[in-house]
Amino acid sequence: MSKTILIVDDSASVRQVVSIALRGAGYEVVTAADGQDALKQLDGKRIHLIISDVNMPNMDGITLVGEVKKLPSYKFTPIIMLTTESQEDKKRQAQAAGAKAWVTKPFQPAQMLAAVSKLIMP
């Protein structure tokens, strides 16, 4: 049974690149354009991991992490932040909110897949 990953990014091209890499590695992919859109996707379906941008309209990634952690069904879902941000305070905010990893754009698909496989339990 394949694992499902939710990709949250306001850039369609980033969603596409990440989706292709993940699907190529055998994962199911669900996408959302921002934090609010992502929360709508969390409607009870099984999501094994969330990959989220930090800077997005409507709801940014760090706020999204906090909101996801309030949802009983998704409280323990690991979240990777995928962002151009490399500021330490942003990283600390994301970690404090509950993010498990931080991948900086531009990323190598292999680097992303390594982070994903560490966080998704077989």
UniProtKB/TrEMBL annotation:
<keyword id="KW-0597">Phosphoprotein</keyword>
<feature type="modified residue" description="4-aspartylphosphate">
    <location>
        <position position="53"/>
    </location>
</feature>
<protein>
    <submittedName>
        <fullName>Response regulator</fullName>
    </submittedName>
</protein>
<dbReference type="Pfam" id="PF00072">
    <property type="entry name" value="Response_reg"/>
</dbReference>
<feature type="domain" description="Response regulatory">
    <location>
        <begin position="4"/>
        <end position="120"/>
    </location>
</feature>
<dbReference type="GO" id="GO:0000160">
    <property type="term" value="P:phosphorelay signal transduction system"/>
</dbReference>
<dbReference type="InterPro" id="IPR050595">
    <property type="entry name" value="Bact_response_regulator"/>
</dbReference>
<dbReference type="InterPro" id="IPR011006">
    <property type="entry name" value="CheY-like_superfamily"/>
</dbReference>
<dbReference type="InterPro" id="IPR001789">
    <property type="entry name" value="Sig_transdc_resp-reg_receiver"/>
</dbReference>
